[in-house]
Amino acid sequence: MNFDESISRNETNCVKYDERISKFGVNDILPLWVADMDFATSPAIIEAMKNRIEHPVFGYSFYATAYFDAIQNWYWTKHDLRISNEQIVPVNNIASAVAVAIEIFSDTGDGVLIQTPLYPPFREAIIRHERVVVESKLVLKDGKYEIDWEDFKLKAREAKIFLFCSPHNPTGRVWRREEIELMSEICKENGVLIVSDEIHSDLTHDKYKHIQIASLNNKNIITLNSPAKRFNIPSIINAYAIIKDDNLREQFINGVAKYSPHTPSPLMQYITIAAYEDSSKWISDVDKYLANNLKYILDEIKKTPQIKAIMPEASFLLWLDCRGLNMNSDNLAHLFIHKLKLGLNNGIDFGNNGDGFMRLNYAVPRSILVEAVDRLKFISKGASCH
Ligand SMILES: Cc1ncc(COP(=O)(O)O)c(C=O)c1O
Fold first, then answer.
1. How far apart are CA 264 and CA 15, in angstroms?
2. Considering the domain boundaries, does residue 299 fall inside one?
C-alpha cells in the first residue's frame, strides 16, 4: 500500500481535521493530535465491509462463533494467551467498559489508581463517577519512564481499582514482565481489581513484547482491547473485555447489561475477522512505514536541543519533553498553535506531570511529517511565544 498518499480527511466529520477550530481555535494548523492514523485501513477490512453491505438489510444481529474464534486465535498466536470464547465479553468501547467497571466494582468515594501522565479520559471517568483519583506518578529517568515502586505500593492501599494502561499512553512504555508481575502482586495483596486497557498492545515496536497481565496467577483482572488502534478503525468497531474468572465475568456482564447495553453492529464481526485473520500484509507494511517515520522525526528532533523525544516502545505517539523551552503550558500551546501552526496534544491534559510536554502523532504521510519538522525548526531559530 502507498502510505505516502495523502488522503484528504477534510469534511468527513473527522475529529482530527474537522474539529481543529473547536480544539485549537484555528483551522490553519497541521493536526498531529488525536490518536488515529491518516492511512487507509487494511484492504481486507474494506472488502469484508463491502461484501456485507451488498446485502441490503441491516436488522438486529448477533456475533457468530467465528467472531470469538478470531479474537481467541489472535490472542493465542500473537500474545501466547489461551482464552476461551466464553471469556470474551463484547462491549461498546473501552471507555464504556471502564465506566462499567468503576460503577460496579467500587463505590462513591473509593480510590481508583492511575499512573500519570495518562490518557485523560481515565481521570475524567473517575471524577465523573465521584471516585477519588489516586495518582502514582511515573518518574522520568534517563529518558525512560519508570514506576516509583514505594509510591505505587502506598497508593495501591488507597485504591479499589487500578486502571492500568498497557502499553502506556502517552509515554509509549511497554511494561516488562517483572514490572507486570510486581504490579499484579501488589494489587493482589491489597485486593485491588486491575482493569487493564491494552488497546495499544498490538502496536509494539520490534524488540518489545507486550506481556498479558491476564496470563498471571491473579483472578482479579479485566483486560480491555479492540482492533481499533492496530487497524485504524476506531470509529467503526466495538471493543471487548477478556475476563478469565467466572465470577468476575458474570458481575461484569451484568454491569454491561445494566449500564452500557451492547448492540453489535452487523458489520462488526466481519471487520474483526478480516482484521485479525486477513490483514498481516497491511500490518507489516504500515509498521515499516511507521518505523521509518519514527526514525525520521527522532533524527530531526535531535536538531532542536530544547525538545527531547521520549523513545516510544509501542504505538505511533511521540511524547516530547519541551521543558527546555521554559514555558508554562499556556505559552507552549500558544507557541505550537499560533507560531508553529502545529496541532499537538498539550501534555498538561495528561496530568500535572505532563506540564511542559506535547504529544505528537506521527501516523501521517511523510510529506506532512516533513512539513511539521520544517515548522519545528522555527524553535531552534529562536522562536518565542510572544
Ligand atoms: C489508552 C487508550 N484507551 C482507549 C482509547 C479509546 O478507546 P475507545 O474509543 O474504545 O474508548 C484510546 C484512544 O486514544 C487510548 O489511547
1. 23
2. yes
